[in-house]
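Changelog excerpt

This revision adds worked examples to the README so contributors can see how folded entries look when concatenated. The first example is reproduced verbatim below.
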Amino acid sequence: MKRTWQLLVGILISAFCLYLVLPSLHLAEVRKTLDTANYWWIVPGVLVYFVGLWVRSWRWHYTLRHFKVIPIARLFPLICIGYFGNNVYPFRAGEFIRSFVLKRKEDIPVSSSLATVIIERVFDGLVMLLFVFLALPFVPALPLVYRNSVIGLTVVLLGATAFFVWMAVQPQRMTIVYTWLADRLLPTRLRKPIDDFYIRFMAGLQSLSRPTDVLMIFATSIVIWLMETVKYWFVMHAFSFHVSFLVLMLMNGLVNLATTLPSAPGYVGTFDLPGIGVLKSFGVDANIAAGYTFTLHVALWLPVTAVGAYYFWREQLRWDDFERTTQPVETTM
């Protein structure tokens, strides 16, 4: 029942985003924009994007190395499976699915690998905010709702980063806090599995225990998102408009921050509304902006989803595997 409500909320948010964006468009003009686009520019964009995925694989290899040194070539399929899960299933299921497959192939506990995934997401969010702050001085017309959202997310992500780093460098103090809370709040029947989950989750945070590790994770995150912005730049050349790379960094930051909201599978609406809004703020015609954003969305979604679906099929995964991955505490038992 809870998942049904989560899915319903996501669909409603996606529908609301589309409701906000569609009235400002002339669909005949959007179609004309799509008909005249030079789609060959997508090819180098896709290639650059997969370079970014390879860097993601290296970053995960780096955060997992205190458990086991896993070759990047073995992690790359799991990264693609994760994207497939996020793009097709609700609830960002891909993060759980790739942790499940990692457990099955490399015997690293799901709760520990999930800790590394959370680290990735926090640093991804920080880089997105960095992109936005670099561009904000040049965007006086950016809607106030975006500026307020950025400020709020900055506080949340910086707080989360500080908290996770503190957990990694002060595990004894964190254990004291956890034990005090668990003694008072957890039922006896849940105490052992949750204690096991906590221990393995804390082990997954050890990649944050040294400043050099934190800097390395942050630096690779910047490279990853710069590669994705280069894809935005390539796809832009398929259309009859031009904005600076800095503007595309801003667009990349805002659309990816927006896709952290619940939505229908594939980030329908939550990707498109801020993407079109940013380009309109820089004088791009709404219909051209819509055609570009739609094409970019498909170019980001389709190739990695197809590759991830192949690896998903090769691993012989099924829906009941997904059900298992959405219960991480049980996997520690």
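The second example, added in the same revision:
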Amino acid sequence: MIKNYVLDTNVIIHDPGCFYSFEDNNIIIPVIAIEELDNIKKREGMVGYHARMAARELNKLRELGSLSAGINLPNGGTLRVELNHMDMKVVPQGIDLHKNDTKILAITINLQKETPDIPTILVTKDVYMAIKADAFGIEVQDYINDNIEEDDQYKGYRTMYLSSEDISEIYKEGLVFKEAVEPEIYPNEFLHIISSDDTSHELLARFDGEKVMPLKYTKENAWGLTPINMEQKMAFELLMDPDIHFATITGGAGSGKTILSTAVALKKVIDQGIYRKIVFVRPTVAAGNDIGFLPGSEDDKLRPWMGSFYDAIENLINSKNHKEEKEKVKGNPKIKPEFSVEDFIESYKQEGIIETKTFTYMRGRTLSNSLVIVDEAQELTPHLAKLMLTRAGFGAKFIFIGDPTDNQIDNVLVDAKSNGLVYTVEKMKPFKLTGHVRLSQVERSPLAKIAEKHM
């Protein structure tokens, strides 16, 4: 049955290509939504960027016909901008009639009344809009085209029971599965293998797309950092392997995402010279003012957002290179340590070896021979995640890290099911040059572990 889908502004900002996601149904864009997009098009960051992208997409569709009369979409269905049906008498008393949300609700109610034989559905990602719509008797849906259910989210590893003979085969030359494995094993998926005839015999291995092979980097460290638990060993494997061009690491606070990624980046760039530079990227999503309101240069604006990288580098260098200085300070409290993480980072910035960036400055760039770490990637929309990955040039390695749970997302355009991190993990898992691991154990401190689990 054909349906009318009325799109809230936040759906269009979440996915500027959403107009092609409703099959053969009628897409209705309230003119108020167009006005809201116009008002935010110059805003810094992902909101303004998505508003401009949506405008370009709608402008392309204008070539197919009139937006007011309706356009037949290439993939079926129609799209029109709704200029009428704004009779506010249908809105209950006590509601602010001047709010744009109220006007969109009024349009939806009036369309329901005019076409009772066609289901009219409001599509929104705003919880309060959904609550009000439901109270008004409007059918409401989340935009779920890019949602990944939590139970279906890929972990990057599984436990498997094999015979001791098979385990020996893995150590010798790798094991080829003689029969199809259900569910399907993806390239670079890790296997915690337990012997079926001796449960004390265990092995951590990786499926390379053809064979199950033992891990390659278990005896290595990066800037004095050695993986602590099984999941960290898996993540370390993906980070160290030059054949993995894109790695995603998810996990809660204190699970080791940032410090593992930073340690490997310093090793690969500064020690080994495998990549030309490290690029640290953060989406600047905050509860208050965004990056455009902060004074100073690009680096000055970004400094408050880069605390996790600075902390990781400071911890790594303090443990690796400054034991003697720390002993001097311990023996004489009047002596201050010579080391400063700001000086370290600034010196490498001046040499072009370290960059700190936000998405505002990434469009149009090509990052070649670079190791790029995108922190807090759960704040990205799927569209921006794609934008980031399409910056990859030859010889580049990209790492997305973040915690894709709702309590760690400040971006109102995404949630635990629709953010760019979980979307990217799902879309990229079938390929041999990608890998993913979810970290579940907190290793920062006993206090952090208790807080993560019980609060």
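Reviewer comment on example two: The mean pLDDT is 86. Residues 46-62 form the longest helix (17 residues).
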